[in-house]
Amino acid sequence: MSAENRRQTPKFEVLAFLPFFGPPPIYRSENVAHYEGMRDQLIGCFRPKDFFELKLVMEMIDDAWQIKRYSWHKALAVERWAQKSLEFQAKRRNLQQSRQDSQIEREAEATVQQPSDIGAVVRLEEKFEDTIAEVDHAVTWTAQEIAHNAALERSMPFQEGLDKMIANATVRFYKAYEAFEHYRQVFGPQLREKAAAIIEAADYESQDFQEFMDDPPSPSIAAQARNNNAGQRHKRIEARR
After folding, report:
1. DSSP 8-state symbol, 75
2. Cα distance between residue 181 and residue 171, in whole Å
């Protein structure tokens, strides 16, 4: 067979087969562009040569996305509990501040009615200003640190569950990677070599092949008649029963 007429193995087009894997497995709160960016980058790294390699790469992509998702939800769980703790502390702090303000007002009124000690008024004012500064410092630093620490403690069972899911996804990722490497190094070349050998051995210039392509054989009439006769006999047997 001449080189001009020899059939070549078609180049594998990844984009043509991506729709076979369905829509991206993401939540509504997740960004589809981020998933597609990770997918395109990993496909570019592995450069699958056939559909089976692409299947393994897509499995790795989904596992990598799940690892990212679970890691993000670990942080989100702590933030969620911390937000609840800070809201509760803010309400309690406002209540305490309201009670303290009422006490200061009562002491101020009593001092004004009986101004026996001007120094007591000055000390009362300084105490009020120091209290505001202490509350602001607690809100800015200490309260947030304590809230995150308490939130981590409360969410620990959830964190442990996410760690197991991350570990499982990681195991699946590396198993798919090992299968990809084994297929590319061993089975893939063997299959492609055999396919190329079959194509190479086919004589597309022979007269028999050309006649077959020009006038492909029609189904056998005798075979159809035999099938029809067999069906009729079966119906007669069933009718007798």
Report:
1. H
2. 15
